[in-house]
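[Solved] Which block belongs to which protein?

Original post:
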Amino acid sequence: MLRKRIKALSIACVLVCILPIASYSMDKDEFLKFLVNASYPEIKDDNKEVSKNTKNENKNTEDKQGKDYIKFHVGEENIPKIKNSENNNNNNENTTTTANASEYKDDVRVTKENPRILIYHTHSGETYSNSPGGNFHSKDKENSVMAVGGLVTEELNKKGWGVVHTTKYNDYPSFNHAYANSLKTIQSILPKYNSIDIAIDLHRDARDLTNDALKRSEEERMTTTINGEKVAKFFFVVGEKNPNVEHVRSLAQDITKFAQSKYPELILPVVEKPYGKYNQFVAKNHMLIEVGSNGTTATEAKASAKYVAQILDEYFKQKN
């Protein structure tokens, strides 16, 4: 204890007596080094050679308390440089670009410039039979229609399409205002990307499944097997109250017919709703697609995503 006090008094005397002279005779880096070495002898200065004995002492001390010490760098010339080769820089650049392309910022992903397709979810909280918290009005995104929409987005992106996918919850907290909310979502996106002429509102169907027999029946109705894999079926819904109902109906029936020619068991007939509107007037080519139902699993619905994307890709490329 006495030794520490003597040491502290010695440093104080040095600072009081020498500080004014040192501050005038040294440049700022040298002066800073002086203060550091005087005040914190346990900190290693990278520029100063330490005697062999001091090095050994420091090594022993670091072995015991290394994590408690900091490495101090004085002067700009002593800041460690990160050495990256030109190839590494290029690789990092490519990785960043790829990573940025798959990011959702403010619940929106844009896969390419001038996207042509918008995928959104009026009933974002629709989940599948394996969702642990129930499959209605849920925030279990991994087992929801939004996860399926994300896979359809990725598959279309691989095929060269620019896609905007939004994972905004439009049915939460108010389910009754879901279509009013999704219309606002659409209207916030379309002005930014006037290249969009295809819009998809992706849902899953819902049935009353109050007992095991109904659940089994629904799973049989809404699943099939393609290439040895169990997948969920899908279908189109048309709201007959839309001013452009003829075009919406014609498009849904045309794609259904095309899908039947490729995967007859995958697609169900178009469903028409006499009193529905479903915001299908917002884009030149609007589709409300139901992938699976509350009687199918998220795995089965996700397995359908590649086939849905394939059908849409081939259909629109043929039309164009």
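(Second protein starts here: sequence line, then its structure tokens.)
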Amino acid sequence: MNEKADIAIIGGSGIYDASILDNVREVDIDTPFGKPSDSITIGEYGDRTVCFLPRHGKGHRISPSELNSRANIFALKKLGVKRIIAASAVGSLKEELAPLDIVIPDQIYDRTKSRPSTFFEDGIVVHMGFADPFCPEASSSIVDIAKSKGYNVKEGGTYVCMEGPQFSTRAESRVYKALGFDIIGMTAIPEAKLAREAEICYTMIATVTDYDVWHEEDVTIEKVIENAMKNEAAVKDIIVDCIEKLSLDRGCMCKDALAGAITTAADMIPYEKKRMLEPLIGRHL
């Protein structure tokens, strides 16, 4: 495949504005894990090549639990992507994080139950560090960009990732709040884990749509969509600057995450597995 991209944007279709790109094209990519959520839009912005992947497919037709995140991340790896910016609508678990605020989280608490979250199984074992699930280098840059534009941004915070697609019960919401978590959503896992396994920097622009159900107001999909649409303009504005200003020279741990992490002896990894995962592990074997 000849197509390449430097930066990937993953999120809802509302944040994509292909009009900012030149030489726009759509590509269909096959992976050993199946097809990504949809075709990937690629274009140029200055000297950067950018790709957009609609996480839930065009028209938002794929449930969080049904996302083929392995195919999504593997496809971006095949494109040569170095940095992923994930856009995500979230609920707030803190009074001070109001709807329409922006959070650049630095931690994740995983409450998912049924999602494949590794590329490495069936003959290969990889124990990879995941203490800091978001790329600190890219996250810091995005915080600076968002603040310079005057947005109300919280730097850091814990994103609790629930299974969904239902919203929380009141009991769950109150427990998450009592545990000190900041925001709640349904998509950071396994995206962040798989991006780290693929040695791609992963960072998130999380936009608050509601206070979840610990607050006096119930969460309604109408309110979530209304606020998500209001947040889209801010996310687009930040992303345009990110495309231009994010360094592609990476000094973070993400780019070498697999170094020393492949536990299985190289001569014991099945040949077909090596061939299948070559874009991920080739340089480490």
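Accepted answer:
You had them paired correctly. Confirming on the second one: The domain at 88-284 is CATH 3.40.50.1580 (Rossmann fold).
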